[in-house]
Amino acid sequence: MHCKRFRNRIKDSRGFTLIEVIISLIVASILGVMLVSFMGSAVMQSGNPVLLAQNGAFLNQIMENMTSDYKYILSTDGSPMATFMTHVGAEGTSQNRYSVPDGSRPYTIVDNHGITFAASGSPVTETPDSSIPPKILKVTIRYPAGAGGMTLTALFTN
Questions:
Q1: Domain regions of the chain by residue span
Q2: CB atoms within 10 A of CB 108
Q3: CA 27 to chain centre
Q4: I need a labelling partner for 19 at 20 to 30 A (CA). Which of 34, 59, 72, 99 fits?
């Protein structure tokens, strides 16, 4: 009678057996490895679009500050193009005059020179203009400063 009661207790017991626990752990670990290998690179690179958008916004703000300064110089200065070229800075230098919000984000001046366009032809090509001050000023900036940043170009005219 005692043996029969023990056998019934084993049949009615709740929970997993040892083999079920081991199999569950193996299946969970296989699924975990698959999830990590599938999502690993996507999760690691998930911040890049946010950084690109932020850098693009800073780059546009820097160029907007340059444009605003040029419009002000144009209305107040006798030789606005020469003054603005000085404000922009030399090609290949790191600047922060127009940086946002407080000048703590340096950018690189890629181009700061005069250009002209060929009178005819397709496609239209630019040629350097050595006159001082030039009629058309090409300004290209890179943010963040250095080789890996994004660039933006604007043309300023007299």
A1: 55-157
A2: 20
A3: 40
A4: 34
CA distance 37 to 31: 10
| pLDDT tens digits, one per residue of 104-139 | 889 999 999 999 887 776 777 788 888 888 899 999
Residues 46-98: pLDDT tens digits? 778 888 898 899 999 999 999 999 999 999 988 899 999 999 999 999 998 99
Closest CA to 103 of 146, 71, 65, 55: 65
Give exposure, 10-46, as e/b (b: 16+ Cβ within 10 Å): eeeeeeeeeeeeeeeeeeeeeeeeeeeeeeeeeeeee
Is the pTM higher than 0.90? The answer reads no
Cα atoms in the 13 Å half-sphere on the side-chain side of 28: 6
CB atoms < 10 A from the CB of 7, how many? 9
- 54: Cβ contacts below 8 Å, ≥ 6 apart: none
